Amino acid sequence: MAQEVDLNALKELEREAILQVLYRDQEVQNAEEERIRKLKTHLQHLRWKGAKSTDQEYKEKCCARCQRVLGLLLHRGAVCRGCSHRVCAQCRVFLRGTHAWKCTVCFEDRNVKIKTGEWFYEERAKKFPTGGKHETVGGQLLQSYQKPSKISVVPPTPPPVSESQCSHSPGRKVSAPDILKPLNQEDPKCSTNPILKQQNLPSSPAPSAIFSGGFRHGSLISIDSTCTEMGNFDNANVTGEIEFAIRYCFKTQSLEICIKACKNLAYGEEKKKKCNPYVKTYLLPDRSSQGKRKTGVQRNTVDPTFQETLKYQVAPAQLMTRQLQVSVWHLGTLARRVFLGEVIIPLAAWDFEDSTTQSFCWHPLRAKAEKYEDSVPQSNGELTVRAKLLLPSGPRKLQEAQGTDESSLNSQLCLVVLGAKNLPVRPDGTLNSFVKGCLTLPDQQKLRLKSPVLKKQACPQWKHSFVFSGVTPAQLRQSSLELTVWDQALLGMNDRLLGGARLGSKGDTAGGGDACSQLKLQWQKVLSSPNLWTDMTLVLH
């Protein structure tokens, strides 16, 4: 049993040092909880691979893990002693040093218990059934100093964060802990988990009454945030409507979706007449876990009331290329999802300055669309770069070179790849990304450069320089620069192309006429303004 500790006898600096150590310990615990969460997510995906579906009959003569058909005499399979399911030979894992085996799910469950230490708590619960989780002295101190205190606690100074840095990077550490904030600034709904901290986006300073009265903020990431995007869900007969409102704050550049209620929804489990609905949103084409927002789950109702506000940080220029997807789901047993309907709204045609569009409206739910509208240009993220044409004698040299031999100019094309965001990430929400640059000269000669790989980052910030030497302004006017972003694969596999953009004479035709003309204007600005940096945001296709 932890004993109470009084820090009042210590000096102020000593108390601050103790609380900072406890905060660092709390960060370590949060990182450990995130590691355990990833292990359990992987185990859950393995279970769903062979899970029985509600709309399909379970075949007894097939493998319970890979659904491979088993024979009558040969390849009959065997029953796993852990889960009592019949599995084929390829879904068995033999334990080290023994002839015993387990199926893939039971073996992974055993590994999770070993790596997380759950086996210890299970054995302790058998010997001490009434023994719960004991609170530590550090935990008591953190709770005690959440109350009003005369101690002036100075939190550790956070590292500087640039404005271009993506605000949805997974695993980003917060600058100051909740326990070290004053009571009047503390949000009782905030969690100390760094992953859940990403949902606390800045709100509008003067929101309308619709978006301010009694509405909760929706959550961002759940343990199984990618399960529905991988096809692990069932379908129901889509019925009913959903009521929500949309508002955009130009001051904070935040898009707010206020989910109010649904009515006449279909049952997620028709036989049991059961429905546990919740709402999930994406800004298409971004389907990553960082781009997902969702409400809480309402239990046992087909007419739920949510009263929650979901927020996105997005620039006004990007709204023209996005579609808002609002979908309703049922949370079933064993965390199985059932699709109940969706609404897709093209934001390019939405008038955010009109106050009438901010009022609540009922939208009929529709079945899942196989292919979304082609009128909105699809993008795979954005790449931020800076470019400069470096001449040895300044801007006058370019004017003098119009009638002279430009081959004598020792010019360089300098390009700084700053970072990228809204990239199509992996199921775990990360990327091992790098950038390739290819400058194609008029004689079809290609100059290739490559940036270093940034591992496990969804919004990478390379800040890497590409320098193409020995090129003249006349050559660059007839050349094209292609920038592509890649995801580094494992050994023996090909790298995955995330998207690319082309600057120069050929332009980029993937994003439509307006985007192509804009890229050409930016390229001409780089060539006509030597020795000056030009910032560009390229839409990847």
UniProtKB/TrEMBL annotation:
It comes from the Eukaryota. Residues 238-360, 394-520 form the C2 domain. Residues 4-123 form the RabBD domain. One of its GO terms (biological process) is intracellular protein transport. The keyword Nucleotide-binding does not apply. It is found in: Endomembrane system. PROSITE patterns: C2, RABBD. Keywords: Membrane, Repeat. It holds the Pfam family FYVE_2. Residues 148-173 are annotated as: Disordered. GO terms for cellular component: exocytic vesicle; plasma membrane. GO terms for molecular function: neurexin family protein binding; small GTPase binding. May act as Rab effector protein and play a role in vesicle trafficking. Binds phospholipids in the presence of calcium ions. PANTHER family: BITESIZE, ISOFORM I (PTHR45716), SYNAPTOTAGMIN-LIKE PROTEIN 3 (PTHR45716:SF1). This is Synaptotagmin-like protein 3. It comes from Colobus angolensis palliatus.
